[in-house]
Each structure stands twice: as structure tokens, then as C-alpha cells.
Prior knowledge:
single chain; 11 strands; alpha+beta
Amino acid sequence: xxxxxxxxxxxxxxxxxxxTTMKNDKNNIMSDVALTIDEMAIRKDLVWDPSRDRxxxxxxxxxxxxxxxxxxxLASNLLVLMIVGISGDWxxxxxxxxxxxxxxxxxxxxxxxxxxxxxxxxxxALSLTTDGNTANVSMFxxxxxxxxxDFRSPVAYDQIITIxxxxxxxxxQVCAMYDVVHMLKLWRTMLAQCCEISLPDGNLxxxxxxxxxxxxxxxxxxxxxxxxxxxxI
Length: 233
């Protein structure tokens, strides 16, 4: 047993343990991984940490990010990077930092360091998954991705760029992905706020049909295999 530094940044003890498991793995379920980054809200608070003999709760990017926080604002979010086995049923957080809604440059610096750490330990990072908030979209653009096209004409494959060089090894490529479930939630929210969305072919997607489904549920007393409730309406 030993003490481990679980502070902001990357936990090298965890990654070292995963690396040791990978070296003993005969089924190749540890080496190929996908990266997932997400920022979650936390309660702002200042807490005394006796083990470090100081208060914690301020913005803290750890020692791995080039852009260090210079203010003493309280953190409102936690940015976490997790690796997920592609062919194996396993996942593990490997790093985090306290933020107050990190911008795209801070996120990119944090993710770049994650790619470098994993490369040094022999992992093969094949993809990066995020949700669709503005900072993540800008981060992907900083990686050279292009996701806009003129949909009034046939879209060519070279108009959409979804891969970028691995920051730790430019000879390797990383596939950029948005979390599908989160993107569907964004579309649902936009549809509810706008009430209708015009498609390129002139047809409309309208929220009133969601209301119709709920009315049918209420009238028939059954559900069409969904969780639609009055709260959603």
C-alpha cells in the first residue's frame, strides 16, 4: 500500500497500473482505447484539505496544462478525461481539473497532454468523443476538423474532415466523434424552442407531432415504447 497523488492533472499511478495490465493482456483488449472528455457541474465551495495543508476548491488545472489559472476563483465545473477499451468491456478516468467552464484552448491543452501520456505508456488512442457544447466544437476546429458544408448540393467526402493527427504521434490518426445521445438531446431542445425546423428539401419537422403522441398516450392509456411524459411537453 502507498499514498497516491489524486489531485488535478493526470494520475500516473492509475495509468501505470493499466499499462501493467496491458502488458500481461493476451487478448488485446487493453491497448486500443477511445478517449472521452466531459465537463460536469459541481457545487462551489472552499474546503480545508489537511493532507495538503491548504484550502481546495479554486480553479486548478494541475501541472499538466500549459495554460495555468492565475486567478483564485472558485471552480464551478470538473473537466474529466476517461479512456474506454474499444474491444474490452472496461473504462477508467485518468485525469481531471477544476474549472469555471474551460475554454477550447484549455481543453485542447488538457487533451493533448492526455494523448502524450497514453502514448508514452504504450496505449493506442483511436478516437476522441465529446458532447456538443461550444467549447468542444471550437476544440475540434482547433484540431483542424471541418463539419460545415453546403447541403443544397451533394456533399463530397473531402468537405467534411473528421480525423486529426495524434498530438503525441502525428503518424497516427484520431477519429473525432460527438456523443450521439447528447446531440439528439440538443436537437430535441432546439425543436422544442423553435417549434419547427425546415429541412433542405422544404419539409418541416414540427414539435406539435410530439404533442400529438403524448395526447394519444393519454387517451389510449398505453405508451409507444418511450418515456414521453407531461414534464417533457
